[in-house]
Amino acid sequence: MPQRVDPNLPAKPFPFLAPDDYYSYLNNADYSYYNDTYAPKKENRPPPPMDAVLPKSFSLLSRLHVPVTVTSSDILYQCNVRAIRPDAYDPPIFDELAPPPNPSVIPLDDRPDVSELALKTPLFKIQTIEEANSDELRKSCFDSSIAVIRGLANTVGFDLSSFTTKALLQLQPEYPVDVRTQYGMPSDVNVNATGKQTWRCSSMQGDTDIFHYGIYQGEVYQQLDVPSYTNPKMATTMLEKAVETRGPSSKRLRPDDQVAGTEYKPKQVVEFCTNVDLSDDTTFAAQLHELNKLPAFLRNSTSRNSLHHLDYSILGMNTVQMYMKVPGCRTPGHLENNCFSSVNINIGPGDCEWFGVDYKYWPVINQLCEERGIHLMNDAWWPNFEDLVRARVPVYRFLQKTGDVVWVGGGCVHWVQAVGCCNNVAWNVGPITPKQLKMSLFSYEWNKLTNFQSLVPMQRLCWKLASHAQIENREMFNVIKGVLIRSLAFCRMVYDHVESCKPSSINIQKPVDGEVSHYCERCTVEVFNIIFTKTRGNKVTVHCAFCAKRTNFKDYTIFQEIEFSELSRIFDAFSVYSAKAPLLQ
């Protein structure tokens, strides 16, 4: 049985699937996910439902039994057959008892040798506008787990000074911001208050405003040896200087007394100003204007960013946020929400040190977290390098200098530490590629399994892409169409089941423009189109069909937001777009 780490180290055996094929469990020799004309052999089909019941489960990765060329009327007709003549419902539209997502783990023997674990980070140097807007740069980034784009800000005339602390102090000094109080320590060390090595990151949440954090950051900056910013080995000395300055938070982490025999013990704390929301296009018009100077594939607001097609804001994802730092401030290890890509610009003046792990190794990172009682998505953690070496996980490690743009590819696990005083602006992007969409769909289903809410409503997003985006890639079209097939069919199955239990209980209530997506109060999954609400006092909560079914829909008010005629119109109009010219806006 394969092992997680080297054979001479203590380890537990684990099962694994074929690497790099997270759709493998959806397919077999008789069926291909992208085959738009072929259905599996009849003997491989699951038995049909016996009446208009809810499917036992619903997954956007469930195996399809109809081609992507199917029409909406065909889907709705089969749903009708399922409701009134279940014995004739053969073949089904999709598997109604889908297996849970099972990420592929690369066996230890297939991982690099220890000498090959330090990866070279792709560095793209931009000197002309043509290079900045080239397909070569875009494709190179899309093919990279993580990459640095150097010289881009200067080439396109991006004004870094618009994002400095000084500029924000002049613009909005009383703007409220969140602050994280963290232990200060070198980037290759993570210990608790007693000096014991751990993956867990300790921090306390507080709040302040830009004015008070600006004072704190400025005082720290005055104490630092500015030339040493370029040398990450100076981080320890800089931290010792930085933590002498009192930060804006009234709350403090109080380390215990020194424990004999420990190599390093945190003595003080640093303050990290997180998630400064720049989404207000009136207040931050100048800042948002600068972002439009970037190449199209990097912009927050562009038709080539799938997240732009959502008609409401998801803070920090399809809106821009800024982070204000002093030496030692950490962004703990994480995957971006739903494995979307992200863009990060260092405003300076100090550097940031980055660490990244390719998407195909995230199951290994997840296992390492689980072994330590850490939830990959919910908890704050900072990997121990010796543990990564034992598990033979290759890591990118690099410095992000002033003006550098870091491209974080979809699904890249990463963590960041400030070497100097600096500000960073960041946001997510969704390249309209099958690779990105598959990652996001798998993350969406994995989040259900781990009780973590997906910030991106993938059903709603795919319907928006079908309605508004110009999809030129046939594989991308097939993936989106597969989601629409499952979504349309499931909506109708839910509708039919509710009507059989509570006739005429579903009312049409069209959503308000820009209304946020609904999530189940109990299980946190996206609730699309058929909305179950319950009122308790002055509070109205939303539930999914499965959770509402627990009480046979008693005390629920049920709404349908989009009529089937409208969904059918979008479904049937969706097609592969033949572009006559490249879309750069």
From TrEMBL:
SUPFAM superfamilies with a match to the protein in the record: Clavaminate synthase-like
- Single annotated GO MF: metal ion binding
One biological process term in Gene Ontology: regulation of gene expression
Q: What is its main location?
A: nucleus
The protein's organism comes out as Panagrellus redivivus
* InterPro entries registered for this protein in UniProt: Corepressor-Demethylase (IPR051630), JmjC_dom (IPR003347), KDM6_GATAL_sf (IPR046941), KDM6A_B-like_C-hel (IPR048562), KDM6A_B-like_GATAL (IPR048560)
Identify one Gene Ontology CC term for this UniProt entry: MLL3/4 complex
UniProt cofactor(s): Fe(2+)
The name this protein goes by in its record: JmjC domain-containing protein
Keywords in alphabetical order, please: Chromatin regulator, Dioxygenase, Iron, Metal-binding, Nucleus, Oxidoreductase, Phosphoprotein, Zinc
Q: Which residues form the JmjC domain?
A: 283-448
